Amino acid sequence: MKYLNLEDVTDYVEENIGEFHQRRADRLESLKLTEVLKRKNPYLFKAKNINDAHDLVKLLLEAHLSSQEESIFGEFLEKLAIFVCNKVFDGKKSSAEGVDLEFERDEILYIVSIKSGPNWGNSSQIHKMVDNFKKAKRILLTNSPRANIRAVNGCCYGQENVDKGDYRKMCGQEFWEFISGNNKLFVDIVEPLGYKAKERNEEFQLHYSRILNLFTEEFTKRFCVDGRIDWDCLVRFNSESTQ
Prior knowledge:
about 240 residues, alpha/beta, elongated, two-stranded antiparallel ribbon
């Protein structure tokens, strides 16, 4: 185990956090209104009595972007976790399917699947993760029959820390301490994550406002009649059979 220099972590974050901001901006610019409308539930918006085209488009766009940003930022945090673990335990990106990180600590070889938060998947997705852990163990034991291998589902935030039998679930503080040996790292990474956040988010808002206005104009032309949302047209576009 080596000492974690927090300046290294700060430098890494500041050098790479721009990728998160750029990717979400790129996703926004490449987005099409028809794609968003196909993925969201039109009945929900009707039930909420949303009759303003601008409000409806804004809700659609924000819901879509929220899920997109969660995914993009989750990938960034995964890379950060691997970077930190590499500095302390010589951890490395795993080549095994569904396993993100491998490292040895206290004579135990850990295989880790990293997720953003604790509520990341349904039962079939969790079952798939367990299968991936089992496959990875079999392969590793073929090369090192005496290895003590343990599986971990590491979550970058949250408080659920429990032994699940086939693997241990570690969240938030426990996870960051597990891969770094530093019980304050979960707090220490907050400040560098905000590097140039104000400038980058102001720039993003300019893109967002432009796309929102363009989408509202397109939606009004295509799904409004005499200034009112044509729900029949919208639902048919979203759900009518094409066969």
